[in-house]
Give the backbone structure.
Amino acid sequence: MIAILLDKIRILSLEDEPVIADRIRRLCAEFLGDRIKIHSNCDTVNEALRQAATGSYDLFLLDLNLHGEDGFELLRRSTSYSAQVIVISAYKDRALEAFDFGVTDFVAKPFAAERLKLALDRFDGKARRDRAPSFLTFRSPGQTQVVDLGSVVFIAGADQYSEVHLADGNQKLHDKSLGQFERLLPDNYLRIHKSYIVRLDLIDCLEINEGSRYFVVLKTGQKLPVGRTRYSILREKYV
């Protein structure tokens, strides 16, 4: 497995207990060292929503209960950003729901230092994620839209963003890059080209055109290019 090395990491924590917030900050500094560029903490959901909207973060560390407020709204919105999300919460019964929204890990309180380190290793790509998401979330004015992962046909690169193509013909722009999606999605999605990830069970056939140009034709009728280095991998999976 290739580790994801980030030059500088920007972290936003959502934690309303000062002692725990300080411990999280100290442990992150111990495990990530001088790779941390900034580590901010918010103790209310509204403050965290403002910070998330105005800052450019690589990692969110989220509690789900702050002074009685439900932090799940921030979880839904945060998974629409490019940042990865680690939930740190005593509400273990919400772990499966959190994983459905594509969080990197769920660390149950009270937690040992080694458990947070494992979560940070998963953020870094040094340890495998437990689960793939069931949903994707997208921000739009005044709301967060939730889309079932099963409705995603393919994803196209759009500069530092990604364009998610859905079974109903709609396209939605997401903050995550293709590389981030490649690490997030389950095994029935495959990156077939530097600019495309496709759902394997929606491939109708493979084509080889003149000049050794490779394509997949989807059951939706769409035709996508296949990179030369990806063709043999795709052919093994498809056949």
Summary: Residues 18-32 form the longest helix (15 residues). Confidence is low (pLDDT under 50) at residues 1-6. DSSP finds seven helices and 17 strands in the chain. The domain at 148-238 is CATH 2.40.50.1020 (OB fold (Dihydrolipoamide Acetyltransferase, E2P)).
